[in-house]
Hints:
Elements: H1 7-61, H2 66-93, H3 100-112, H4 116-138, H5 143-176
Amino acid sequence: MGRRTSGRSNKWLRKLFLSGLILLKTISFNLRKFCRFAVGQILFEITLVMLVIGLSYLFTAWGMTLNAALILAIALTITVLSLAGLMWFKFNTRDKLKGELKIARLITLAIAQKTSREWDEYQDWLHDIMLYRQQLLNANQPQWQVSLITYWQLGKFAIVVVISKIKQVAANIRRSL
């Protein structure tokens, strides 16, 4: 016959098992993340070394001494790496609108693709919404309040535009019948 355990020890064992399972999952997730990082770093360093070796080989083939070729290859690799990093930074940080500004830009682009008459109708309203947003920010209102008010105004704007478009479609359908 097996030994019976009390309900209290079963709960304790279950909590211990779940805690261990959570700890194991966390460790394995972080270990995978670290391995991906380490492999990426090693591949990056190998690429840099290969670039320096290749450039120094090229420079020595052109008649340079080995020391001068290595110095020039390292300097050129650092320069190329710096320029690539700068270009990547500029590419990834330009025009990254977030939140309500991104929504306003999407609405503006959607309306701007239509005829100029529709754009003229709604451009002033969008301009007023964004101007009011800037005035609130200049008045040192909390960012969350400004975002909430801007989302609300953009939501009302989108609803009015959708309702007017539905009315236009319905009128066009009535005319075609």
